[in-house]
Amino acid sequence: MTCNYHFRALAGERVRIDFEAIDLGGAENRSACLNGGSSSGSSDQDRLTVADSERDDASGSLYFSFSSYCRFDSKVQTVSQEAYFRVKFVSNADSVIGQGFSARYGFVARHKLQATRPLDRDVLSANGILPNKVIEHTIEFRSSQSKQGVFSSVNYSESKGYPRLAKFTYRFIGRPGEMAHIRFIDFRLDGPVTGSCSSDQGDRVLVYYSSSALGNPNAVFCGTQYSESVYSTGPHLTLVFHTDDRLTLGERGFNGNYYFTERVDKHELDTPKDQGMVATDSKQVTLGCSANREIRSDESSSGVLHSPNYPDGYQQLHCSWTFLGRANKTERVVLEIQELDVESRTTDISTALECTSKDQVTITKYIEMQMSGGKVDAVDKPFCEVRSSRPVRIMSTRIPKLKLSFYTEKASKVRRGLRFKYSFVQDFGILGEHKMQNQSLGCHFEFHSNRASSGNFSSPNYPYAYPEQLTCTYIFRARPHEITRIEFTNFDTETSRRACIPDESDFVTADDCSRPIGLASSQNVLCGRPERGKAFVYKFQATCVRVVFVSNDRYNSPGFLGVYYFDRLSNPALNRRMHVDRLTNLAYLQTTFDELIVFIF
């Protein structure tokens, strides 16, 4: 049987396909997976491929190839370069039969997702399957052999970096009653092209709270986006390190330490012996954790906390933690709820606006209200449920203080409870492998052409909501005869109306560094969201470009992810002045000869 599925998007869209389950039969046999034929008439394997051409020849690009005897441990996503994809499924006449495959498809605006890099046909063998140079290796660390030790990616200490097209599995096997704890000392992979590790298919580390890599991962790390400490919920933990075929500067890999400890460790806050019962809301509540504990940045820079007995249920309790950072220009408090599983949960996993009980977590942030003469307002954000696959991360305002309260009305033996991470950061959670921060100026970062010709940058705390009352400056320094081009692949800031009014909106401006701050042309002010199928783009011919992001004290949004390029002028002899069309796919370039040239990208 041969089946072809054609996906045709509109102009300005991409096709996104997520394979959620694939089983084309046969016991797992990597050599057979790699060496099977691809011809539909003579193949000794069933085959599933994704390409951007309606023909089977080499006229198009191949994005995905899968055959019998292969196994995938997690969801696979592929995104088209243009507006077309063809999925081809071929089954042969032999007795090797599997369950088949299931997938989801979507048509997404081009600026929402970065396209998947096509498979390199020079790397692929003639049958369209990855050759035998693909590396797979499993490393085990057992508690029965050592309670602690070190681990790292292959070639970590060598300049050549880790191998391409590889899959390394690290299995940490504990004893009953133990938990595995890994702590990364260094972590630097190829940055995600989509801005999100969970949707990216580049170099990445998948985390599973079990002894095998089955189902969806509990966490995904990539680029420089990772958790310093990871704790298993049971005795075992598995890391799967996937590498792509790309090699970029700065890919060092990772190294760290591992530990096997008893299930109750130093991160669990036990009942103070002298408290026993306390009155809360006129009720007697047995405390399983501190009623109010303060954690300061000069005591601990980061850590993971959880409710007592996590993940084996919880008692009736009321816990409260207050996190206090240093009062300077850079330090911020970050709380990341990694899992919240309580009774009477809402159907909305990210907010408790529809909570039907008091079993919830509340995070309190402190905002200095400009309209109230500097009065500090405590703003509560409640949560009823947070899944480990979709954590919640909140950053403090310029007042470096956050409070987390966990309240339950009754005990539960079937719900897991609460687990969260705290950290005190200096870089505002801004992405960018090549960023250089001037800490004396606070949220001030520079990107230089002599360090990298392109890269990413983002709003603070991206892809989670940026904090209120913040001004961040991004300086892009180009070489002579270069154009600075900035494209926002994702852009979503709070605004109360279509016009970007500074006092009523969070906004981004851009201008030549020689112009005074605050005098940017209204044409260069961006806010809200771009129209469907379009993206915000800046282009300047200047050796220094300044981008400024400002948030007010009202509401916030996910912010932005940008990509910058330093492009060399094709004819630097012309004296050109660059203009920006803020909501279109066209940028206009006017020369001193009053001639109009239109660039389409």
Question: How would you describe this protein?
Answer:
The protein has 601 residues and is mostly beta strands. The protein folds into 4 domains: 2-36 and 43-121, Jelly Rolls (Sandwich), CATH 2.60.120; 133-262, Sandwich (Jelly Rolls); 293-345 and 355-425, Spermadhesin, CUB domain (Jelly Rolls); 436-573, Spermadhesin, CUB domain (Jelly Rolls, Sandwich), CATH 2.60.120.290. The protein contains 1 helix and 39 strands. The strands form 10 sheets. The protein has a 5-stranded mixed beta sheet, with no helix packed on it. Strands 19-21-26-23-24 form a 5-stranded mixed beta sheet, with no helix packed on it. A 5-stranded mixed beta sheet has the order 28-29-31-35-33, with no helix packed on it. Strand 17 (277-280) and strand 18 form a beta hairpin. The protein is globular and about 80 Å long. It starts with a strand and ends with a strand.
Quick summary:
Keywords: Disulfide bond, Repeat. Residues 289-425, 443-567 form the CUB domain. 1% of the residues lie in helices and 43% in strands.
